[in-house]
Structures
1.
Amino acid sequence: MADQLSPDEKLQLITRNLQEVLGEEKLKQVLQEREVKVYWGTATTGKPHIAYFVPMSKIADFLKAGCEVTILFADLHAFLDNMKAPWELLELRVKYYEQVIKAMLESIGVPLDKLKFVKGTDFQLSREYTLDVYRLSSMVTEHDAKKAGAEVVKQVDHPLLSGLLYPGLQALDEEYLKCDAQFGGVDQRKIFTLAEKYLPSLGYAKRSHLMNPMVPGLTGAKMSSSEEESKIDLLDSAGDVKKKLKRAFCEPGNIENNGVLSFVQYVVFPLRGEFSIKRDSKWGGDKTYTVFEELEKDFAAESVHPGDLKASVEASLNQLLDPIRKKFESPELRKLSNTAYPSKTKAAGKGAKAGGGGGDDDDLSPSRVDIRVGRIISVEKHPDADSLYLEKIDVGEAEPRTVVSGLVAFVSQEELQDRLVLVLCNLKPQKMRGIESQAMLLCASIEGEPRRVEPLDPPEGSSPGDRVFVEGYETGKPDERLNPKKKVWEKVQADLKISEECVAQWKDNQLMTKLGQITCKTLKGGNIS
């Protein structure tokens, strides 16, 4: 289709339904010579919701206009924004975003082979990018950085330095992704103008900026991942969609801040080209609109009832969501969704004490326990005890830790050599037959005759030093050293077990790293010690 369009027709497709365009003349110049390169970035924080169909529909427009489109999963930005995404969950959330964004695009008929997907940390940790961050930080004032992020970065009484870095990194992404234009919501306008002001100072080109309007949520305010009542999740059931739409703000005749009407304008019409109101013949019967303004005019005149509008939007929305729901019926994607976004009730009910860092005697938060992935770099028999191993384990520190374990009767030296294991690192060191053990190697065990013991297994691809956490307790900090008199480890250990699926758990919550679950090979229903 794009080959048959003139530059003016392509520009019309690129800019339709946008609230504002900065640098339109530059876009016209590029279109006279070649296709436009556009990038859209999304910070991998809360779960994407139906408002994400608004940028998806624009991405469909860009592709129809022949644009080269890059989608950036901004994982580093997600962490910098007041730690909206815990570091331990970044990788899982990137995987979730990639799966759900691709499912959205497929549901609206966008061919994925014409898109380029990039993860922020794939290039934002490079030497060149880091040097540019320092160069930019020597030019941007605190006032400009704070002002640029005011509508995007979470605002708190005592802001972190990371929030001031966020706008500058987003500006640099334009250069490192080699785009002609960045696309985003109008709430990012101040970040875009910061990029236009400072990138030329680094010797980089000033880009164009394409801005979508902010779509009202179901409550009439901005749709937000953090406000449950304002949004419909992409995996909500048809029943949940009906309930949320029923409660949505949609006052008769009111076309201002009407999230239901805005969804029709910015999603349904661009994708379908028309919208049908289904209603009883005594209320005028069905009517199909091919121009949004006619629907808006009828709603303002109260010729269209809010109930009929909601029912028709419900049908359109479920058509878009059904393929996404179906895709996420797979066990793998259900597991990904649950691990990337642990239950809030678990975190709220138990996480109130999950701050760690010393805690009270009654604080049994598992986040107080410092469990890490380790690699056994050497293993030999204890010189004074044939029943003990003496291991050197790399736990991500400058020097390996010496660990004394009783695994001699259960695992051979050859099996342990170079093996990835789990290590408890903040117990008080103890002398065992004259040698100080600086940590504890964690294993699954089943009592009986004979007793069976297996080291726990971290996920494939893990590295020494990777933190192990309990889902729902991702953000708590471990004690520097557990006080043996308080028996914190003993109390936490009492609720550690192996599930029937051989997954390590604490009170039915999974033990995890950023890469997935902690498991053992065969000891279903075992204990952990």
2.
Amino acid sequence: MISRGLFTCSGVSNAWLETLLAVIETLPKETIRHEILNPLVSKAQLSQTLQSRLVSCKILGKLANKFEAHIIKREILPLVKSLCQDVEYEVRSCMCRQLEHIAQGIGTELTKNVVLPELVELARDEGSSVRLAAFETLVNLLEMFDADDRSQTVLPLVKSFCEKSFKADESILVSLSFHLGKLCNGLYGIFTPEQHLRFLEFYKKLCTLGLQQENGHNDNQIQFQTLEQEKKYISVRKNCAYNFPAMIVFVDPKNFHLELYSTFFCLCHDPEVPVRYTMAVGFYEVAKILNSGVYAIHKELVTLLQDESLEVLDALIGHLPEILELMATGGENSGSESKLLTVPDLIPALTTAEQRAATSLKWRTHEKLLQKYACLPHIISSDQIYYRFLHRMLTIIMTNNVLPVQKAAARTLCVYLRYNRKQEQRHEVIQKLIEQLGQGKSYWNRLRFLDTCEFIMELFSKSFFCKYFFLPVLELTHDPVANVRMKLCYLLPKVKSTLKVPTDKHLLQQLELCIRKLLCQEKDKDVLTIVKRTVLELDRMEISVDAFQKRFYENDLLDQEKEREEHLLLEMEQLEKEKQQNEGRSANISDKMFKKKRRDSKTSSALAKNIPLSVSGSSTPSTSKEGKKSKLVRSQSFSTQALHPKYGNIDKCPNKSSATGYSSSISGVGKGSILQFSDDSFRTRSTSNIGNAAFPSSSPLATSSRNSVNSVDQKNNGNKDSQSRKMSLKNRKSNP
């Protein structure tokens, strides 16, 4: 029945043909041979109609994979050769496109001996559609040809195609541009350096096809291009954009900046949206191939983010997290905190893209973009997110009218809050969520607060939710709007699952109290029905305890990991604060040390001027020059040994004007002798004056006090000597 319907009118024939091609895979070989292959031999003859021969070509391509190679060689290949030599170009073109399937069925050897000669002959056919079919089949079968066939047969044909495409046969340009990447990489091993450069230049020429006049070139050539030519040139440049990743592999990623960057720039700034759209789709592939050199294309990323067409933006943000991660980790400038700080226009471009999507009517693009922006905590710093993106998400939740967009913004905001590294900022955001959403005047905002709490339970630990959001959620049981209370009832089982006993026993009591109030005071029938259903579900729930349980092991382990990360963020914040404080202290200490050195240098210079005056003003006129020198040496020795461990706290000694203060430390005094202090006396004074590190002997006051003490000691010594002489004389008189 199918075979009869295949060769009737074209509409019915196409329907039956599609049905037959779909079921051939499931039919047994004997059925195919008797019911399809045998009638096909007669229907493929030259005497049959054009439609009959075209149908025969398509069926032969499908049958090639169902039989063994010897059956194909004996029964199918003769029909294939006959149809390749058909008088009608439509039949030759159709049969040429089926040669790829036949080659896969007969193997490499028969393909080389039977299929390749047919392709060479069809490539020189007078019909352009036949030549195009032969070219595309050659490209698809490159892997089945060895190096000799590629260099001696395929390469000359490809070169002739490229030469004819601009001169006499522009119809092949679109197909040639589409397959050029696959062709260049398939023939890469047999290219000479000259041929390699020629094909690269040919690709560059195709990338700017139709733009010469717009760029100011060839003004005297074609002035007016037909609409058909313009569409053809746009298709060529679009195909070149599609093949750009393959061409980077062709030239080697190391040579990208030298060989292909200018072409990449032109394609990203192409005046036609389909070209830029294709570049946006393939941008991630380009970034992956460039790897460590990905930073070279950051300007084009910013350009596409700011593109006037939302289609281009939609195509780019599909892989935006992966692109930004490659930019952050694979770029040449690898900073420790944020690698993208070297791209100054990136953050403004991201904010501009979001605002453009928000003002458009394409809310799905806006939703998709907000979902992708959740990757930013892994890319840029916490402060940049807080000041440029986080508050924007809160604004979208409160002002946007599209529910999926609001939910996407709420989830992204929770992700930002999850990875925020400053506790003060986290508390501020939590407070805004509770006040502006949970306690907001609009019931719509209160509904979004419940959505946000659901995301918080997903992303944060149980203890975090119980600490900040458990009680604000329960307060909504008294909400005047029934829809809010209804949504809360649906959320209560998840809320209860965050509790742990006995730690959260008081919260559990609050939950039970709210449920009792709902059961007793709820007047709305729909809400009351949901409350009763929720109560039954809550009764069946088991509350997890602080210790691990087998049935909750995985969930508890995941919650413990979240809680550990939250504590880690707090510890990191504390370490950063301590680091900043230490840096501030070290800076202050260095400033103080610098000022102290300057002050000491000034006082030492002043002391050098004042010491001779204080010595000359001494009360002992009989002091010789040597005595003056000794005192000067003594004062200088005190100043130079101020930091010695033994004499580090000697500054308090000279401040006492009485001679008794020195009685325990002076071992002996003579005229013109230098004061000698015992080590023990210094040790006792050092314990009482441990905080004084400066040595005051350099001041004039200290030197004058020392001179006065010396003069008093000398007078006392003189009186003692005279008294001792008088006593000795009396003794002599009494004992003659």
3.
Amino acid sequence: MGGQLVTVATCNLNQWILDWEGNLARIIESIHIAKAAGARLRVGPELEITGYSALDHFHELDVFSHSLEMLSILLQDKSTHGILLDIGMPILHRNLRYNCRVICLDGKILLIRPKMWLANDGNYREMRHFTPWMRPRETELFHLPKMLAELQGDTHVLFGDAVISTPETAFGAETCEELFTPKAPHIDMALDGVEIITNSSGSHFTLRKLDTRLQLIMEATRKSGGVYLYANQQGCDGERLYFDGCAMIIVNGDIVAQGSQFSLKDVEVVTATVDLKEVKSYRAAISRGLQAATSNAKYQRIQTPFELAPEDDDADIEKRPTLPMQPRIHPVAEEIALSGGCYLWDYLRRSGTAGYLVPLSGGIDSCATAVIVYSMCRIVMDAVKEGNKQVIEDVKRLCKYTEGVLPKTPQELCNQIFTTIYMGMKKQSSRDTRQRAKDLAEAIGSYHVNLDIDDVYEAQKKLVVDTVNFEPRFKVEGGTVQENLTLQCLQARIRMVTAYEFGQILPTARGRPGGGSLLVLGSANVGESLRGYLTKYDCSSADINPIGSIDKADLKRFIAWAETDFDLPCLREFLTAVPTAELEPITENYVQSDEADMGMTYEELTIFGRLRKLNKLGPFAMFQRLVHDWSIDRKRVEGDTAPFYTPAQVAEKVKRFFHFYAINRHKMTTLTPALHCNDYSPDDNRFDLRPFLYPPFWKSWSFKRIDMELEKIEKRRASKTK
């Protein structure tokens, strides 16, 4: 029967697309750490050899040949022998591209297991790059290329859906999306006696997602029993996504080990010792036994004499099963701080640039972007104190490193790699916003530039006056709507050009070794992008936007949390300030307001965004939903914070939202790449694919149907009041 105490390992790896040798080095390091901890089985993330986000590079034959070359190097490295390995990579088999797990032992391949259910929703496009394996529990032969055949001592290995049988147990593999399907492979595996199941994932971060992921992973063994190993990527591997790690080991529905969700460690290995007897006992339920006995889902077992639980280990009384633990889940404000901070550090160090620049407006959005950069600096300095060698090397490259002295505080690091710039206008910019920007810069330590753009604005405006003999005026000065917009957009676009100008020259002007340039960060939140409440090619146009898929309410939660946790009392002023673009002159009777300009509140924008994307509602269906949710006639119950509107008001708001969404949709095609944080992001690149030229919504059949429904509702309401 063999021993019953098994030490297993899973990991978070910060891989980078097509970083062949770097990715391989991190894989090998994780194997070494797993072996040092006594593990006999190691599982890594999905597509760990290439990096998950290679996208259309998966169409290139080089990607498949280089992956095999990296596998060959790994198999020849004897330091990786003596442990079962579950490696993620793409495989070209009979001219079909597969997303595979390669199960190896002592320099030999035991099985190539292709992914069966591909992720093809939201940000995922696996069906564009791979073919699913459509034959459950079937295998065939894979013809090895010469370099692998020589190592294998054979020309073929098994390819397909099978499991590995050791003297004491059996383990099988499923990949990422397969866990989330209604009939996941682990169900049939468990009924067929497989006791250890590995899951290799490329699962990206969104706010509040971890709890859902945890429940699904824990549920995988809560009903059927077993040991479940979850591996994931962690970090930015070259795309808009942050992979949030959280490698974990679950036994019979209980977490016994959990890795970090956010970290600057390139390699993090999670190990646990599990007792296989606990799995056997957990599966003693009669109903479970009857289902297993009558199941026709029988897996081919590939035999190996390698012991996962050597009998000698049972005599080692120092070895004991790892105890269950409570899952660690960060509150949403902390998720924003940590995900944004870790993502920005990966992007900065891998881009080879000199730092970041943020245009500060004195409002909460640009404030949040700046505080996320400050969070990055805090995370980096914590890693430096912990002795993280890679982080220390990156800090040395980015900072003035003289006489072996590194920055000692987040503020010192911030001052070297982060610039904030306030670009004011004498008539439009208030003393309050200028002061708030200055106070924030002082608190976080950024290098701050305070300037006015009036001269540039007047010169550009004069170009129109001199050319067409017409002087545009603001609305408060008697100008038309088009004149007002022209002058607002002119200021906004001057700020974008100015931000890039300073971003390119400041590292040289400040004497940074090697010069270089700063990456410009954007600060348009998800609601403003969805509504189109921004100027095309203004400061929303940047290199990266860390808050581009976060709504105003969550940004306020983040700033309120950071005020206390980061000890930044100046943030209180940002929380109480009225959101304003400050693109129109301030008068005694008028101060521009974002929500007044938009004709809806930020809370309403969030609701519209969620119903449009997550609930998949068009204008008519959204009206049908909100006319009940926001009904002025409803009785308020505990927890009900929705507004009270008449049916006509609801109709007007829904129409207004879709009208502005449609006419501004073209702005999404040039939207700055944003860190993906929400499932209703309007990102046009790959997440929210829509046209950008719509027929007028006010003439549409959808709006006519709203009017018909409104008429029916009003008649019914009127009859009730008689």
4.
Amino acid sequence: MMARKQATEAPAASNGSPKKRSSADSDNHDVKRPRLQESTDKARWRLSSEGGRHTWHYLEDDEATKEWPQSYADKYFLGMPLDLPELPKATNPLDAVRNGLTFFEKLQLPEGHWGCEYGGPMFLLPGVVIARYVTKNPVPWYYATEIKNYLFARANPVDGGWGLHIEGESTMLGTTLNYTTLRLVGVEADHPVMVKARATMHKMGGAIYAPHWAKFWLTVLGIMKWEIVNPVPPELWLLPDWVPIAPWRWWIHMRQVFLPMSYLWSKKWQAEETDLIRELRNELFVEDWNKIDWAGNRNTIHPNDNYHPKTAFLNTVNWLLVNIWNPVFRTKYLVEKAEAWASELIDMEDENTDYSDLAPVNAAMNTVCCYVRDGPGAFSVRRHVERLDEVLWVNAEGMLCNGTNGVQCWDTAFAIQAIMDAGLTEDPRWRPMLIKSLEFLEDQQIRENVKDQDKCYRHPRKGAWAFSNKDQGYAVSDCVSEALKSVIILQKTPGFPTLIDDQRIFDAVDTMLTYQNPSGACSSYETPRAGQWMEVLNAAEVFGNIMVEYEYPECTTAVLTTLSLFKKHWPNHRTAEIDNFITRAVKWIKSNQKPHGGWYGNWGICFTYATMFALESLASVGETYENSKYAKKGCDFLIAKQREDGGWSESYKACETGKYVEHPTGSQVVMTAWALIGLIKAKYPDIEPIKKGIKLIMDRQQPNGEWLQEAIEGVFNKSCMISYPNYKFSFPLKALGLFATRYPDEKVV
């Protein structure tokens, strides 16, 4: 452990072991904490969806519960019994599709899309709770109660800590922030869950071993001092655009997080000190708070959190900023100019998203920035707090925070495609459900580019779709592609209305064409603005590949398959450019294949996910097992990973290590579906392994038509996993449907 010097300042702090708070302990300035209950009445929760915006409401009034009855979707999300009748047992894959759709249509929300939790990361909820606490907007008691229940349920059963994500080992990021969150919502320090978590935190060295993001939030709370936070000067935003490390070149999530972080770092703002903050200073550390060498522990980090250690170059830059830049060159004029520009960029982000912001991390930070700058009663603060509700979700375990404000457009697109692959789009039974889906996608298409697009460094988005909804408004290459593909599928099916005219479809295609990089690949939010060398400045520590945009097989294949479909219906629109795009994309996909035959997945786990998309994209241009060595190698890779029971099972560890790792719980329905889709699309010649996989999916289907949740499905930045619960419907349905249409006479059971 690093030596610690006597701090030069010694603010008052509580001493001794944590004690239970009483009303007499609180001073007049303490933020009122909600009254905690054992649990809420799940029958009183309702999910509202208006304009694709999800908010959960707790109805304390009995009359209100009668006027707004719970839907099947509400009950399902809350883990309540649905009391649905058993369906006739499926005797073939198409019957299994119909049973699955019979269940899945009950989860469709009134506007026509499918919602679900998008949880997994364990560092998101603390940001929301901390932002509300420091801006004196504490969560209501029913939020607090279910936040407590969720975090209790997700504590590591062995050591009591929390990880980076729900399946990960305990980390200091997860444990310090979630312990703090529980205290902020009203859990006492002597609760057994807290005692166990605190013991683990102390065993790991205490909060000084937390990574950068945790140190930032704990400093905003006033639990730490700003000296422990590595410098994030807003002056970086004053760098000319031509400078290779200028922030506009960073990946969108990185720059939108470090933007408000830099503003608050520069202001050195901290929340009003309360009794609870003083208690947390006593609880989170193993040493006397007054004696901690804050500056000496800026780089102290526990090995479990140090996925991407800071480089020697970054450490040198930080030293120079602290010891040379700050005391010598950081003039008042420069600071004020930098803060003003950072503030304006924050305003543009808020305006372009109506205060939803890109994701919960920067939304929570922007909330605090507006509070610091505009004051507690400002519209900007009130609107932020309102919109933070849209990232919160209630499930059977309690209240969590989603990775964005939902997955509305993304999941709806996949649901439509699953029905198409089963050959059921013309079946009158499913037409009302599909028309509602089409209406939702029509409503959610983004019709214009953002205001001041170039000034705020945004990529074109006219005609696009976001991952969640148009309020959030960030176009992503594969989200645009999957949504457009679904629109084309339905609007070219007899009996469906044409809600999106040709010009709006052309707008979407025109935007899609802007995503291709010189290599032929596509990235996610925008084309890369700098190279991988920028990772030498990766200060996040817990994530890899976070500084810049990267090239992704999933994004490339999504655009490729959609353009291939588009060409069939509109052969004369930008023909040469689209042909060139497809040729270059196919070439890159082939070059991205790993020696073992698979493709590495960046947004789903892992090789199974990306290999499915790669094989599907090759098939869209006529390359299959029979005539393409790349498709053959991809199929052989999947077949080699099939388990004895016919399924596939890949662990999130594959994302971290870059090597295929079996999941310890065995075959997974979702991954089995991914593998089967790839094999069927590629026309793998041996039907027997495919039949074995199909049988596993059918055997796992429940009598009411659903599939149960298994292991986590998604990932981002190599190290953090995230949940896609609707995948257990859309992809098994797609695999079953593809099999039924490709092999209509084959018996599986």
